[in-house]
Structure formats: structure tokens, C-alpha cells
Write a structure and sequence with these properties.
By secondary structure, the protein is an all-beta fold. It is built from no helices and 16 strands.
Amino acid sequence: MASTSDIRNGLCIKYNNDIYKIIEFLHVKPGKGPAFVRTRLKSVTTGKVIDNTFSAGHKIEDVRVETHKFQYLYNDVDDYHFMNTADYSQIALQKSTLDRPDLMKEGEVVTVLINTEDGLPLSVEMPASVILEVTHTEPGVKGNTATNATKPATVETGATINVPLFINEGDKIKVETEKGTYKERIKE
């Protein structure tokens, strides 16, 4: 058993007869009244995101997990296929268990959280950032900016990301996976 002081991003807990992963949290200590923890929880079985507030000191049931490195191989309609980099065993996960499947390219190494009780995969954690090539974007027009202007760009995985006007097709960019935002251009 854990308490609200143990809450952190990525922690898996049992709540309402389901297993949830904490994706965001905030400890709040108001001037009047007791402290509490505001959380965003994502179900690892359905992918549904809910908001919940725990009072300070509330006991939560955490789930023991192991982390393993898996390489992303390919995807078909609903399933994404991964290979364990240690023993080469393969698993298939549903799209709902992935945080940002649109930013994963083949060969990407990710961390998979596996429940130690039943050996089932719970969720996939992407690296902090990925490097992707821009496959399509409109040319930036000089003179139509007042401040930081952006334009949509399609990357090699099919995701659309807002990038600065100086980014062209063929450029490689670093994308922050948590928010899906442009970080920097990669020079070769």
C-alpha cells in the first residue's frame, strides 16, 4: 500500500476495479482546509482518461511493475507489434495502451511496463523525444510574421506537428513525445 505522498508520473495504481497509470498530478495545499492531490489517470485497459482528487494521506493500492526494453516492429489495423530486445520474444499491444502511437517509427526502442502479478503488459513509455523527418510542409513565406509563427508539417510517421516557418521538407526535427510539440531542427 502506498499513500498520496508516493504519487508520481507513470505510477500504476488499482482504482475502481481497474488499473490506471498516473499521467499528471498536482499537490495542492490550500490556505483553508486539508491538502489534496489532483490527478489525471489513464486506464491501461481502455485508454480512458479521468480526473480524480485524493485527499492527503489517502491510501492507494499500487501495482508492482517491471520495465523491459522493446523495439517497435510494425502495426496492423488495431495492434502494434514489439520485440523484446533481451530475449527476442514478440508481443502485440492495442493502440489504446500507447500514449503517442503517431510518433513511433519502426525500430524505435520503447519501455514497456509489465504487471508482475500476471505478466501482462500495462503501458508503453516513449523516449522523451524522437527524431523524425518532415515529409510534407508548405513553404514559409517571408514577411508574414509578427512573432513566433508556425505552420503544420507532416512527419514520416504520418503525424502533423506545428513547426517554425524555416523548416522545409526533408529536414529532420526533434519532437517532444509527451506533448507532441516541435523542439529543434537536427543538423546533419
